[in-house]
Amino acid sequence: SLAFSTRTHYTRTETLFIGTDGHLLLTRRGVELNGEAVTLDQSEDSFTLQMRLFVEALLADREVPVSGGEVLKTVRTLDLVRRASESGQTQTF
């Protein structure tokens, strides 16, 4: 389950995601997972990285890095985030 709130004590430049296994905080300074700073590789943007890994997997006849099921979970999560933001109500996955 995932809770998303745009009405927290955090400033508008911070977004907090609370899940059953922990929380993720996105700020202008960076990303924190359960209170620990996360180091992000910014050598290439995330879309380019995803496409490169996908193409490399296809060319090498390997399993793709992210399954279709995982993609659907991500799309559903983003839709729930949008709904929560618009309605101000908690959304349940």
Write up what this structure looks like.
This protein is of the alpha+beta class and 93 residues long. The protein has one domain (2-87). It is built from two helices and five strands; from the N terminus they run E-E-E-E-E-H-H. The chain is globular and about 45 Å long. The model has no long low-confidence stretch (mean pLDDT 84).
Q: What secondary-structure arrangement, pairings included, does this model have?
A:
Layout: E1 2-5, E2 15-19, E3 22-26, E4 31-33, E5 36-38, H1 46-59, H2 68-87
Antiparallel strand pairs: 1-2, 2-3, 3-4, 4-5
- Helix and strand content put the structural class at alpha+beta
Strand content: 15-25%
The radius of gyration computed from the alpha-carbon positions, rounded to a whole number of angstroms, is: 16 Å
Number of helices: 2
Q: What's the shape?
A: globular
Give the mean pLDDT.
84
- Helix amount, in percent? 25-40%
Question: Count the strands?
Answer: 5
Largest sheet: 5 strands, antiparallel
Query: How many discrete structural domains?
Result: 1
What's the arrangement of strands in the largest beta sheet? Answer: 1-2-3-4-5
Low-confidence stretches: none
Give me the strand/helix succession. EEEEEHH
Distance between the termini: 6 Å
